[in-house]
């Protein structure tokens, strides 16, 4: 009896968190998501621009999930779980990608320090 209550309560909570989008909102949000994600087949193309079969299927999946009322984050997280972090154009900040985010900044800082020290030494 308790298990049935827990399942029905979980289903009710799931329905409460669903988004209700207008047709225009679905279209705009679907295109926005498709522009933010990389096509698994086409090199350096987002889903929106790619004409590959997998890109068409993924765009359909995005719009299907929007129709179900899922949020942008839910859809992106689903696709990242399925295809890996490489599907994102902008990787999320975590332990695995920390180097990608910090190395360019560190390189710029050390370059400025090096230039400053060279200029100071020459004067």
From TrEMBL:
CcmH/CycL/Ccl2/NrfF N-terminal domain: residues covered: 4-122
Show the stretches that span the lipid bilayer: 98-119
Task: List the InterPro entries hit by this protein, alphabetically.
Answer: C-type_cytochrome_biogenesis, CcmH/CycL/Ccl2/NrfF_N, CcmH/CycL/NrfF/Ccl2_sf
- Which keywords label this protein? Cytochrome c-type biogenesis, Heme, Iron, Membrane, Metal-binding, Signal, Transmembrane, Transmembrane helix
Q: Which Gene3D superfamilies match?
A: Cytochrome C biogenesis protein
Its annotated function is as follows:
Possible subunit of a heme lyase.
Which protein family is named in the record?
Belongs to the CcmH/CycL/Ccl2/NrfF family.
What's the protein here called? Answer: Cytochrome c-type biogenesis protein
Give the originating organism.
Answer: Shewanella intestini
């Amino acid at each position: 009896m308790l298990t049935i209550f827990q399942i029905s309560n979980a289903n009710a909570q799931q329905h409460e968190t669903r988004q209700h989008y207008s047709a225009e909102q679905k279209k705009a949000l679907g295109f926005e998501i498709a522009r933010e994600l990389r096509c698994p087949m086409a090199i350096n193309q987002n889903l929106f621009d790619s004409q590959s079969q997998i890109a068409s299927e993924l765009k359909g999946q995005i719009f299907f999930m929007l129709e179900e009322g899922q949020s942008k984050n839910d859809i992106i997280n689903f696709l990242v779980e399925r295809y890996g972090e490489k599907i994102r154009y902008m990787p999320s900040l975590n332990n695995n990608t920390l180097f990608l985010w910090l190395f360019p900044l560190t390189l710029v800082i050390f370059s400025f320090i090096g230039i400053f020290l060279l200029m100071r030494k020459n004067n």
